[in-house]
Amino acid sequence: MSRVRADACPGVFATHDAADGPLARVRLPGGAVTAQQMQVLAGCAQDLGDGDVHLTSRGNVQLRGVRQPGLAARLGDAGLLPSPTHERVRNVLASPLSGIHGGLADVRGLAGELDRALCARPALAGLPGRFLFAFDDGRGDVAAEGADVCWRAVTPSSGVVLLAGVDSGAHVPRSGSVSSLLAVAQAFADARGSAWRVGELAEPSVLLPDGPREVPRERAVRVDPTVGRIGQAVGVAPRFGRLTAEQLRVLAESGDAMVTPWRSVLLPAGADVERLHEAGLSTDPATAEITACIGAPGCAKSLADVRADAAVLVPSGEQVHVSGCARRCGRPSGTHRDVVAEGGGYRVDGRWTPASGLADALARRALA
User: Fold this and answer.
1) What's the count of helices (H) and strands (E) in the chain, helices before strands?
2) What is the SS3 assignment for 22?
3) Is the pTM of this model over 0.85?
4) How crowded is the C-beta side of 334, counted as CA atoms within 13 Å?
5) Pair 258, 37: CB distance under 8 Å
6) What CATH number should be reported for the domain holding residue 300?
7) Which of 65, 91, 137, 289 is an S-S bond match for 95, by CB 3.0 to 4.6 Å?
8) What positions belong to coiled-coil segments (predicted)?
């Protein structure tokens, strides 16, 4: 695939000029964020942006309407910007429930290890901003997110390398997972031409070193709930992935957290659920069933105020994503109902309906 335009993935130094002002994306490798860092992010949102922190489908956060100076300095002091040259390529997923509930291997710490090694390699600063690393603890949750290169556990101490979500047959011990993923990233940087993603290469397998490989196989995908009580941990589902500065400060009261690729926040040490509810934070998994892009007026390309329209929808046990245009920003990777704004209404799974009939259209299909 030939790319004719520049990679415009936003960061802190290279913001995106959205309709509601500059948008800055802050990477959180593995979704990990400390209580102190949450306090800093809340302050940045309140003092420099629109007052909210927005979760992304890669376990990162975004600040919108950042019109005041000083963001990079505040994030740098908090350890959220360890390498200005690498800030847009620090895209790393890790199974958020690893070491808490389920999974074959404990992948905690691997995202941070990779992040430090990545930032220490000047040559990898030129990776496209869309390039994605992942560590899956064997359950198949982040392996399903289509990372460019992923280590997926098959035993507690070994795993297989996935390229663009596909098993390569190359088995690597956990101890060598970080170096193996970085080697693939370097090979991609050397061979990519104008490609942004590994899946755009004709033969992704050329990125792997020579060596024995097993027959590739398809493995089960399972995304376990990250909202509600999960052992000692508590998961929160902010409506449409949006947290006010004050809500983020409430989350910080419970200690360090994990931002998941499904726009939820996991509090491993537990939390006072009543306090969360008082702050307007939901621990009901159904809250996460309905997602939406930012929509109008925040996005100039959106054909509708999708969040206002989606706010009246009632969860029905299936995933629904409402998009303001055909780009379908923020859509989940798994099976979901596809709702796209078009001509004064929406296309629901390909069939047009007026905005006023959106809830009925979804309900009819659910009952069919």
Assistant:
1) 8, 20
2) strand
3) yes
4) 17
5) no
6) 3.30.413.10
7) 137
8) none
